[in-house]
Amino acid sequence: FVYISDYFLDIVYIGSLNPQHFEISKMMLEHGKHVLCEKPLTMNEKQTRQLIEIAKNKKLFLKEAVWSRSFPAYQELRKILDSGSIGEIVQVNVTFGFDLSNIDRLKFKEMGGGTILDLGVYVLQFQQLVFKGEPPTDVVAVGGLNKEGTDDYTSSIWTYSGDKIACLSTSAKAQCPNEAVIIGTKGIIRVPEFWCATKIETPEKTYEFELPKTTATFNFHKSVGLSYQAEHARQCIQAGYFMFSGKIESPNITHEESIQLAHHMDILRKQVGVVFPQDLDQICHDFVTAVQTYPESDHKIVAVGARNLNNAQQFAKDHNIPKAYEGYDGIAEDKDVDIVYVGNLNPQHFEVSKLMLENGKHVLCEKPLTMNAKQTRRLVELAHQKNLFLMEAVWSRCFLAYKEMKRLLDAGVIGDVLFASVHFGHALQHVERLKAVEQGGGAILDLGVYMLQFQQYVFRGLRPVKIAVNGQLNDQNTDESAAAIITYPNGKMAVVSTSARIALPNEGIVVEKTYEYELPKSPVPFLHKNSAGLAFEAEEARQCIKAGKIESPHMPHHESIELAQLMDLLRKEVGVVFPQDFE
């Protein structure tokens, strides 16, 4: 164990199990430590982008420990390829496999198992080096899964521009040739033991490299070569490589290359059918974990549904939920289900919530309730017709802090409120659902709903008389930032802003005095800050249903409609249009 606050500790090497890489690396970076983390850097592209963003914000060195890239043989291989001695490269063949059937960490999902993450990173980084990071035009992969749902073996063909291809294979069931072959129009290069190469065979000559001398014993083949990447990291930090040049990464394996490697492993896993908990919807994990802080007599989760049955089954297994459905019809028809929490992508909220209401289920739906005011009105009308509870899951409203704020405002503690400001933003460029129109992307729907509901809560009962809006679109025509000045009668005003590009103060200002409240305790970790508070909205929904209410007084239907109208107005001014706006 090492105290991460140790002033004399410069850099941390992380060699734990794959699923722990992200959290430990994040912890070290947040405490000002440089990081050399074993491959794979994280479990998926999403986590990798988040980690790199932290390193950039902290101006700290972060390197994925693909030790192969620091071997002298790899430095020589780059020179040989750059010289063009074998002509135009047309094909790369790489195999990597051993009989690893007795290695538990390669079997189990909770250990981040499978050959793609453990062996595949090596074959992928080799073809990445040869083709200099060029993105493939097509990928076809096959593989075999074990009973735990991780891959025992894979084979894939990667097609690149100019009819170049890479044929890659990994196996935990049998010994493979374990060499890399580069085929050019003028010759062939062979690299035996390519992952820890000390030999390169070219048409002109054979290059051989000695490993560092030592009397120490090692657990794995050529492990003394790990010293190369350690020394490289030391040189980057000690020589001020990043401090004086502005770089915080290694030229041997850049951040962009780590992102691409993670992306390529995601492609392989998707085609072969390997899904890890880290790939699943994080808000659903946090909601279930929060609800499970209550006794089963009050809240019992009996079923989960997802578009992909494997995803639903994996989520059910990870969270001890008895039933899993492909799609949402099964939940709608399940007689054991009283209320459904809808936490999928924004464009699906309306249809899934409508399906549940039509089948007699109460609904707690993530914000935004729908994609626009028209859909929201239809959903609210349906809930009234069916006499069923419907609540937009603006969890903020159920926190004790909000209830105290309402009491203070109602009591006139600060007099007549004339001004409120609220700002909410994070650097979320890596989150695909915030970019794409088809996924209901944009800062307004995802983050803006929070700032808008806050000022709505402060000026409850008032309607705006004027709204001035500005914003910025990304290359997919969803908003990455927006700001508005909302004017109310008698000169009252709210200034609000949201951003998916940069971190904002993330605070609402109305009252100066500080009040603090504890959250529910859970033995299971959450993925997002203060997610234990999701339990409050679940309990609010239970209490409302128990009392025969069809809406929550903390988030009534007319306020959901008003929120949708405000978001519609902001989107119109900024220029964000979704297909649902034309229905």
From TrEMBL:
Residues 9-60, 295-391 form the Gfo/Idh/MocA-like oxidoreductase N-terminal domain. It comes from Asbolus verrucosus. Keywords: Oxidoreductase. It catalyses: (1R,2R)-1,2-dihydrobenzene-1,2-diol + NADP(+) = catechol + NADPH + H(+); D-xylose + NADP(+) = D-xylono-1,5-lactone + NADPH + H(+). Its EC number is 1.1.1.179, 1.3.1.20. The keyword Oxidoreductase applies. This is Trans-1,2-dihydrobenzene-1,2-diol dehydrogenase. GO terms for molecular function: D-xylose 1-dehydrogenase (NADP+) activity; nucleotide binding; trans-1,2-dihydrobenzene-1,2-diol dehydrogenase activity. It is an enzyme of class 1 (oxidoreductase). InterPro entries: Gfo/Idh/MocA-like_OxRdtase_N, Gfo/Idh/MocA_domain, GFO_IDH_MocA-like_dom, NAD(P)-bd_dom_sf. Belongs to the Gfo/Idh/MocA family. Residues 74-190, 402-504 form the GFO/IDH/MocA-like oxidoreductase domain.
